[in-house]
Amino acid sequence: xxxxxxxxxxxxxxxxxxxxxxxxxxxxxxxxxxxxxxxxxxxxxxxxxxxxxxxxxxxxxxxxxxxxxxxxxxxxxxxxxxxxxxxxxxxxxxxxxxxxxxxxxxxxxxxxxxxxxxxxxxxxxxxxxxxxxxxxxxxxxxxxxxxxxxxxxxxxxxxxxxxxxxxxxxxxxxxxxxxxxxxxxxxxxxxxxxxxxxxxxxxxxxxxxxxxxxxxxxxxxxxxxxxxxxxxxxxxxxxxxxxxxxxxxxxxx
Amino acid sequence: xxxxxxxxxxxxxxxxxxxxxxxxxxxxxxxxxxxxxxxxxxxxxxxxxxxxxxxxxxxxxxxxxxxxxxxxxxxxxxxxxxxxxxxxxxxxxxxxxxxxxxxxxxxxxxxxxxxxxxxxxxxxxxxxxxxxxxxxxxxxxxxxxxxxxxxxxxxxxxxxxxxxxxxxxxxxxxxxxxxxxxxxxxxxxxxxxxxxxxxxxxxxxxxxxxxxxxxxxxxxxxxxxxxxxxxxxxxxxxxxxxxxxxxxxxxxxxxxxxxxxxxxxxxxxxxxxxxxxxxxxxxxxxxxxxxxxxxxxxxxxxxxxxxxxxxxxxxxxxxxxxxxxxxxxxxxxxxxxxxxxxxxxxxxxxxxxxxxxxxxxxxxxxxxxxxxxxxxxxxxxxxxxxxxxxxxxxxxxxxxxxxxxxxxxxxxxxxxxxxxxxxxxxxxxxxxxxxxxxxxxxxxxxxxxxxxxxxxxxxxxxxxxxxxxxxxxxxxxxxxxxxxxxxxxx
Lengths: 253, 490
Description:
The complex is a heterodimer of chains A (253) and B (490).
Chain A: H1 2-11, E1 34-36, H2 47-51, E2 57-60, E3 63-67, H3 76-80, E4 86-88, E5 103-105, H4 117-123, E6 127-133, H5 139-145, E7 159-161, E8 170-174, H6 182-191, E9 197-201, H7 202-207, E10 229-231, H8 238-248
Parallel strand pairs in A: 6-7, 6-8, 8-9, 9-10
Antiparallel strand pairs in A: 1-4, 2-3, 3-5
Chain B: E1 8-10, E2 16-17, E3 21-22, H1 24-36, E4 40-49, E5 52-61, E6 66-75, E7 78-80, H2 90-100, E8 103-105, E9 135-140, E10 152-158, E11 161-168, H3 176-182, H4 185-193, H5 200-215, H6 221-249, H7 253-274, E12 283-284, E13 287-288, H8 295-318, H9 320-326, H10 334-340, H11 344-349, H12 356-359, H13 380-403, E14 421-428, E15 433-440, E16 446-452, H14 454-465, H15 474-481, H16 485-489
Helix pairs in contact in B: 3-4, 5-6, 6-7, 6-13, 6-15, 7-8, 8-13
């Protein structure tokens, strides 16, 4: 018994200070959204777009658009670029309310808008979510799960993952939605009392990710249910997911 | 006197010319003879569709580190099942039936594996059913209560006691292997990374070692060391997380809370290597994509993590309430583990001493040996204590590697793949043996690609662990295996 107390004292309090205090330090090698500096591109060169495993990059004229909904945040575009035009942003706030808002140019990043006032009144201080993995590889799942640990303590925002859709205000979906999970996902969504929210986490749930256009998958959550919040990444950093959830609820400025 | 045929001998990561096909009878006889002599089935799969299927079997002799590859062409709709004589083939034969249409005649348990045939509806199958007074059935899933992947479990119970658990998977099937073969090539590594996304390093390691063997590429020593460090960090993060989750399942919250956080710190060390907490982008054909910037800093961080983890996990062993829940729960006997061909932690906890790092070492493991951690009781306690023993050894290994990293480059270019060849690459993921079996065609392109996640071998172990247990102990037993759904479903 005594050793349980002494260990408790030794481990200390380890919950992050954010959003009231500073955000936890992201590793120097952590990659945010890829940014393509068109001024440095060699003419006619499309090496980055060709190398992208999920065709997330569209080049045209002066413009370079990266679809963060497809982006795996890998290094293939950077490695392919002969002129060092690809770099990665440090912004972790990447979530969006609309699919179109994930098509981004340069570093300008619009933050996800909060729900309307009526929905904020309903969910703002108590949001119960049912998580459904629909073909997820367990990385998005693991880094959503981590929000429940003492390091992140999701409960302090009134956000909680619940065991039944009947107890939930919404779904948090990971994975490209395998054909085999379509029915279960639909059933879970239907079982949630309205009004309800859907949050798609990770490249797979947004666009199919590396499995896009496989006959076995449906290219993401939108193919089955309407999505209210898209959180990009492969997987998204827990900070990106938490930021998205809090912005949705209007709890960040 | 019957004809004696043996396969082509090789070793982990040793490419060979695609072995000649032998007659089905000789193929089957040799598998049984090798198994009798102690060999383990690493892989067994088909190519093509009945009535013309080519079977490949990969057998491992773990004592000598030798692998044997056998191939056979079967012309016809069926083949006598070997499962009645060799239980560990039960799932392999079911898979060949599902994918290639070759029926194993006399198979006792011929049910879908991933429900991928035309007309299959996932989860709809004949479940093994116990009948009688007071017998009832409990169905769980595909969606589970926590943040977990989907699968369906059906318990045949008598009161609280589980007579039998049937596990029905396939919900996560995303066509990983098909995508690898179809291309585009630029997606292949990403499909491998996400085959089982919590085992990215072990899968990319097996994939890259297979390609490097086929290309005849030698990976620089520094890259080999970084790969091994990453593999052990992956093991540490998952083992520490599992020990915390096991504590949570017996409502011992101190260890559950601490380990949840400490697991994150270990993932952050992987992020320090490559920018991604799950090791995406680190292991690439020819080496690693990132050099270690500041090994001394990593060693310092590791020491803090080790101290925190030791304090958190030691509480498990010194708390009688925890031990009494772990001990004698979910036992798998040594003979059962052997018969089912279990691998990894689940096998070692049941006294079956198999570990790719010791038996079939490649890369840095050939130079720096990690002692194998084995227990004999086969229960939840054994699976927990094997995990912790492995953690202690992984901490020491990572520290040792990082303090003496070889100098030199971390990546070399990869040449073209040797045509008409076959290679088996094994790595010891945190759950157990990951196997990638790759065959090239006459032009050096991929002709077949087979992935075996340790979960493929081990799900039947969980089913056996539940026999005669209280149904309320299912979460605890399940977590003590912590198997992958997507790694099985692919």
